Task: structure prediction
Amino acid sequence: MRKREYRDYLNDISESIDDALSFVEGMTFKDFKKDKKTIYAVVRSIEIIGEASGKVPKRVRDKAPDVPWVEMKGMRNKIAHEYF
Result:
């Protein structure tokens, strides 16, 4: 297995964003709150986004200051370590 590069993590982020959006497509927030499977799927996508964002090198993150890198990682930590 080859070593993962930062582009792989950026791809993970992009795919997880697309996944989360597709999971909730056509749903109201009220419907979402009642659908445990969708909630778990979106939460998992957020975890992947946060984990992958923490593996993108600082030199790359610095080139995209408009991306909320710290918040993405922070949300992952909040979900992984706290119950909401």
